[in-house]
Amino acid sequence: MNATPVIAIHGGAGTLLKSAMNSETEARYLASLNAILSAGQRVLAEGGSALDAVTEAVRLLENDPFFNAGHGAVFTAAGTHELDASVMDGATLEAGAISLRDTGEESGARGAPRARRQ
């Protein structure tokens, strides 16, 4: 059997009603999603691993302010951010994760929030 690799993404949690968007905004969302999918598919087409493809897709989602992840993440009720991410390689079962809790306090490193190991 010769399988064709595919990638699936979503733009984050929350409610985004189509009725609240104009056609230009909708087109920008769809263009971003298509560009991100294309980038992930390109990694696979060039012989990259599934882990490489999904990592690239997530990196692009998190750097796009349209989506509820990373750069576009929603603020907590306290006006801070609480973010986490994890990934697993299904072939080896190796996994990694990271979490960030922005307390709103400066850490001394250009105002970047402190990260700590759990």
Can you tag this structure with a few keywords?
single chain; 31% helix; two-stranded antiparallel sheet; 2 helices; alpha+beta; disordered C terminus; 118 residues
In short:
The chain contains 2 helices and 2 strands; from the N terminus they run ααββ. The chain has helices spanning 23-45, 50-62; strands spanning 82-88, 95-101.
Description:
By secondary structure, the chain is of the alpha+beta class. It folds into two domains: 17-74; 75-118, no CATH class. It is built from two helices and two strands; from the N terminus they run ααββ. The chain has a two-stranded antiparallel sheet with strand order 1-2. A hairpin with a 6-residue loop joins β1 (82-88) and β2. 8% of the residues are buried. Mean pLDDT is 80; it is low at 108-118.
How big a fraction of the residues is strand? 5-15%
Tell me the structural class: alpha+beta
Shape: flat
Number of helices: 2
Distance between the termini: 43 Å
Largest sheet, spatial ordering of strands = 1-2
Helical proportion?
25-40%
CA radius of gyration: 17 Å
Topology, number of strands? 2
Order of helical and strand elements: HHEE
Fold topology:
Elements: H1 23-45, H2 50-62, E1 82-88, E2 95-101
Antiparallel strand pairs: 1-2
Helix pairs in contact: 1-2
